[in-house]
């Protein structure tokens, strides 16, 4: 328990808790600017991670970052100017699974 208290006092946040909003925004902007056909999928918070946004490009390449809350996640995704979906309602596109499978086969 003391470890978590030290972490909180020091101002350090976990990349999985959504505390680094500026870094996530910058990463998302770079990803969106360098790829085409990007869509955003908002994932709900779990017991382990904060709310997350997954950006998926036209070829299935994807990236994920944690954000502080569901409303912030939707706001950040909308600010990118890409379509935004709730993953609980739409699921993930098949191209994301296909890209991940290709990456596993090639060892990348």
Q: What structural category arises from helix and sheet content?
A: alpha+beta
Number of strands: 4
SSE pattern? HHEEEHEHH
Strands of the widest sheet, in order across it, are: 3-2-1-4
List low-confidence stretches.
1-12
Sheet of most strands: 4 strands, mixed
Report the end-to-end length measured between terminal Cα atoms: 37 Å
> What fraction strand?
15-25%
What's the number of helices?
5
Q: Estimate the mean pLDDT confidence.
A: 87
Q: What Rg is obtained from the alpha carbons, in whole angstroms?
A: 15 Å
Gist of the model:
The chain is 46% helix and 17% strand. It is of the alpha+beta class and 108 residues long. A four-stranded mixed beta sheet has the order 3-2-1-4.
Describe this structure in words.
The protein is an alpha+beta fold. The chain has one domain (16-106). It has helices at 2-10, 21-34, 70-79, 87-90, 94-106; strands at 39-43, 52-56, 62-66, 84-86. A hairpin with an 8-residue loop joins strand 1 and strand 2 (52-56).
Give a topology summary.
Blueprint lengths: L1 H9 L10 H14 L4 E5 L8 E5 L5 E5 L3 H10 L4 E3 H4 L3 H13 L2
Parallel strand pairs: 1-4
Antiparallel strand pairs: 1-2, 2-3
């Amino acid at each position: 328990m003391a470890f978590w208290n030290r972490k909180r006092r020091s101002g350090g946040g976990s990349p999985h808790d959504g505390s680094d909003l500026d870094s996530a925004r910058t990463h998302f902007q770079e990803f969106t600017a360098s790829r085409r056909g990007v869509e955003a999928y908002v994932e709900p918070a779990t017991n382990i991670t904060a709310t997350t946004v997954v950006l998926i490009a036209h070829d299935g390449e994807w990236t994920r970052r944690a954000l502080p809350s569901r409303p912030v996640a939707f706001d950040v995704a909308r600010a990118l100017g890409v379509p935004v979906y709730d993953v609980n309602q739409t699921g993930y596109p098949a191209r994301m699974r296909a890209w991940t499978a290709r990456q596993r086969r090639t060892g990348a």
